[in-house]
Amino acid sequence: MMGLDKSQLGIDFIRGWEFCSPICFGRRGFAYDVRCSCICFVGTEMRKEGRKTINYLMTLPSQMTMIWDDYGSIGTTAIAFFVRVGSRDEPKDQYGAAHFLEHAVFKGAGNWSARDIAGIQDQLGGEINAFTTRDYTVYYAKVLSSKASEALELLWTLISAPFLESSDIDKERHVILEELLEAQDDLEDRSSELYVSALFPDPDFHHDVLGTKETIQNFKAQDLRDFHRQFYFPGNIVAVLAGDGVDQLRRQLQSFSWPKSGHSRPLSRQPVFHQPRVRMLQKAGEQVHLTMGIAAPLLDDVAHDATLILTTILAGQNTSRLWQRLREEEGLVYTVSASYSALKDWAELSVYMALSPGSVPRALEVARDEIQQLVLTPPSSRERDLALTQAETSMAFAMETPDGRVMRLGLYALYGMMPLDPRERLSQLEQVTCDEIRVTAHRLFHGSPWAIGASGPVDSIRPVLNQGFTA
Q1: Quick one: which of 2, 58, 74, 79 has the fewest CB in 10 Å?
Q2: Would you say residue 131 lies in a domain?
Q3: Distance CA 338, CA 319 (A)
């Protein structure tokens, strides 16, 4: 059970959900609105070694969305339930509620106690877990196909019929407080958290997924029951299936009934505004962890694909501009990377680096120089082609295992989208020209102030960072 800090941002292009793991979008291949009062489905064809494979998206009579593929696997199955609620949906006095609830459902549900659930998890083998992000909560299982039916029943029971007893909440409270302390000791996570709050000023949006010490201490069982009743209902959930035995699991899922829980309403979210600032946290250590970035094209923006490739060229692989200049040529950093997260109503592009305080001024100069070069001059065809190779490889890896496909399918389905065949998706990316990348760089970077989040021994470089960063 995790509160994924990186998921608060979204995901970077190289490790993103379209190409690997949960959380970054491909722009096209969407617009299938299948929410209606009857059972219906749409499908997209894919091919694996010459045979037809199809992704299916269905809305059940309960209004729960179900998405699955028939890609198969060698004896393994992955299952997930994506719930459309995350930390951004919490009121101020309940920061951390989505994550707390994600923990609490494992303390007892249906006919099972917490010890029963732990025993079932071990009996099933594989991995049964959950995580919370800013935009959604996921409960998932990766098991042998012979155990898939039991795993599906377990996950369904956890999300539909949790006990949420006061005694269990009180015990889990201490676990989550320990998790919060651990996160606060992670300087990279703190840099990421500071950066998000520096870019997006609304605390209801940028607050820590884990919540605060005060809100965690004040949660009552009834608070979590109310939160569950408000957000956990079939029309707000996507069920995802991949691997062997999917047809049987579909029938099993359609036989389940959701307990009546009173009135639930569709999710309504506030617009997301950005206002770049600088935020710093002095902590003992040898390195400054620096994350800086800007608001970026949304999921359906025409510049989305060019931004994906631009991010890789900037700092997404070994030949990227910042990796070569900052690490290989000048030896200023041990780590530098870039990420681009794009959802339907917020997006950001950021650069992360870890380095000694004395190297920060020069590193910012180098970063500014390389970004300005991308604004003024198109990247080379070789740079573009290397970025496309990275995308092709990552997409192939994402399709290899049921759990990789489940995360990809689930994120698409949350937004009413169907994923494309990776080769078709790659073909879309191949349409992006070097000049489009330069135009996009100019649109994003030229004269735009960047938000900065820095943690570690920052006191000696406060004047430098307080000047801000503009390319």
Answers
A1: 74
A2: yes
A3: 13
